[in-house]
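Example record for the data management plan.
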Amino acid sequence: PSPIPYCSCPITAAGGCTLSTTMSAVAAASALAPPMMATPPAGNLSLRSAQALAAFSALRLPILRDLDEAGLLSFCKQHALQLIAADGQADTEHLDVDWTRPSCIVLGHDASGVPTGLAGGAEVLTRIPLAPSVESLNVAVATGVLLFEAQRQRR
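Corresponding structural encoding:
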């Protein structure tokens, strides 16, 4: 089977380590960190701590940086990757996606979701079914759910 998908999602200092570990656990090909989706450190995390986490993440998993929306769409086309965007309102559940194809998963910020240009350029919009009382998952958790389903299908 093809490698586990590339994954494009918001990279925060606090979440970078979790995302890196999750992607490494399923042998993801790479993390893509588009500049419009990168976020500064939050809360009481110092810049030094943020840099340490970012360095740790970079050592565990290649991170492709500085792709804008057009660049990410072009990257997917150039590498024959199906672009799959996580969208809480999508009709297709993540279990119904063909994860055996070479893929790039795009996730957005918890509050704003995937940028419109990327959602519009996606071949597949998918959602993780949630209880009615839950609005969304943390992006690191959603990434794990999607990547482990991809891994399960690729066995």
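Summary line stored alongside the record: Strands lie at 6-8, 31-33, 63-65, 82-86, 92-93, 103-106, 124-127.
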